[in-house]
Amino acid sequence: MPDDRIILGAAAIPEPDRHWLAAAERLPVGSLWQGGHVLPPSATGEAITRLALLTAWTERVRVGAAVLVLPLYHPVIAAKQLADLDSRSGGRVSVGVGVGGEFRAEFEAVGVPVAERGARTDEAMEVLRSLWKGGPVTHRGKFFGFDDAELRPVRPPGAAGAAMRAGGPPLLVSGRKEPAMRRAARLGDGWMPYLVSPGAYGRSVRTIRDEARAAGRDLTGFEWAAYVYCSIRRDGDRARDDVAAFLGGAYGGKPRAMLDRIAPAGTPEEVAVRLQEFVDAGARHIIVSPAAHEDTLGIITLAAEEVLPRLAVGGAAR
Questions:
Q1: What pTM did the predictor assign?
Q2: What is the pLDDT of residues 199-212, one digit of tens each?
Q3: Calpha distance 152→132 (Å, rounded)
Q4: Is 77 helix (H, G, I), strand (E, B) or coil?
């Protein structure tokens, strides 16, 4: 991705919906995202199922998992599912990778110790990449082992040009802590943290660059994304109320000033100033996740039409 271009992404909150997605695709939005868990505490979707809906119900935009809790999945199964979706969408799939751990019951149910989630994620990423290169793969690792496995992505009949991209979908590492940063520097195609302030984002960029340099890795083409909970309204107070109601409970009644550092809210002009801080810290792909319980398309519309044009690399928000 060019360093001087800013891409706006959007989270399809609360669930992928055909009409919502069609409306979002008419906006200057470059990507649409959804994540999910295997055993969430509420009736919400699973990441790969949601990603399948995104691929089926969109035509032009990049679609992504934000995030796939990779240690819950056998990587051979995940590799096949993701390759097929990427092929059927014409190479539009991206995969945000996280280690999870907040819902211990889902780890216990699939027989994965929570303490192993980081190491399993690292090995699973290696398996995905190996299988996506094509040809027979033999792998002998700590958690997974197989001989001469060859993945053949489906190619839909009559879909000229539809194919998995060479090497498979990009893997964007998500998280907030240094182990995730090291994973991004060593194994990721990009970095996509969430619930971080612009200052913390800037520190993470420096950490990843330092880790990559120490590992002898060139980060050319590496994608710097930020998944940002946000509300944008004509009425700035309503937007701030949105965020307080949507996220405030998770932080034990923390003051709005604390939430404002990680979840910008206000008018388009106010939010543009805050999102510009993420751009100044190194982000080039801003994924807006509506922190509201109603009219989430309205938030994305304002983000695309009135916030994005105000953002600039190397300059204050207009």
A1: 0.95
A2: 999 999 999 999 99
A3: 9
A4: helix
